[in-house]
Specification:
With 213 residues, this protein is α+β, with helices and mostly antiparallel strands. The protein is 44% helix and 30% strand. α1 packs across α3.
Length: 213
């Protein structure tokens, strides 16, 4: 396939990937925990919304968002409906965890699962360009150009991040290959030494038994 046919498709995929919002809906049974993982780039603003179905007072659902180091980015006990926003200073894989807690009396049927609707946006998608246009007194065309400029920067940053990860993975693979090679050579030397020792031992043994001269 020619380059001019590949490039537009690749750019379209990158634009869609960067600007799309992650939305999901699922059911969570009582006394269970479910975590979602989201990749967030450096200096990204993260915004999200959540809404839980109405249920009995006996069941409560907690929301907790942690970074890769276990630091709390956002938390809410007995979450029902709300929004959150925060930013990250470096590339992160954040965990969004919902946990339902209930004390079911003996002989009572457990309450039904809660339906959770969750949406998260980050990067260009998280910016409100209407507010930016009002604050900076931008015309609609200027606001759209600002959005396209931010999107272009996000694409460049994404490509640079992928290239960096590729270099890291290549370095890891080369280092692993070198270690495997050294281990193979060491194993062969050990086997060669063990074989030589066995031959010498058996030769001395057979000489002691006068089976060979």
């Amino acid at each position: 396939m020619e380059l001019e046919k590949i490039l537009p498709s690749t750019l379209f995929f990158c634009i869609y990937f960067i600007s799309s919002a992650s939305g999901i809906a699922f059911h969570l049974a009582p006394n269970t925990k479910k975590c979602l993982r989201e990749e967030v780039q450096k200096d990204d603003v993260v915004k999200g919304e959540f809404e839980l179905s109405v249920t009995t007072p006996e069941i409560k659902t907690d929301l907790l968002i942690l970074d890769s180091k276990g630091h709390k980015l956002y938390g809410k006990e007995d979450a029902q409906k709300g929004k959150f926003a925060f930013s990250v200073d470096e590339y992160e894989m954040i965990d969004i965890c919902f946990e339902t807690k209930t004390e079911i009396p003996y002989g009572h049927a457990p309450p039904p699962p809660r339906e959770i609707t969750f949406t998260i946006r980050h990067g260009v998608e998280a910016k409100n360009y209407e507010d930016i246009a009002k604050a900076e007194k931008l015309k609609p065309m200027e606001a759209e150009l600002r959005r396209l400029e931010d999107l272009s920067d996000a694409i460049v940053d994404s490509f640079n991040h992928m290239r960096k990860r590729e270099d890291e993975m290549r370095g890891t693979n080369e280092q692993t290959s070198s270690r495997v090679l050294y281990f193979s050579v060491f194993s062969m030397l050990c086997l060669l030494g063990l074989t030589t020792w066995q031959v010498l031992y058996l030769r001395r043994f057979f000489k002691a038994k006068k089976l060979i001269e």
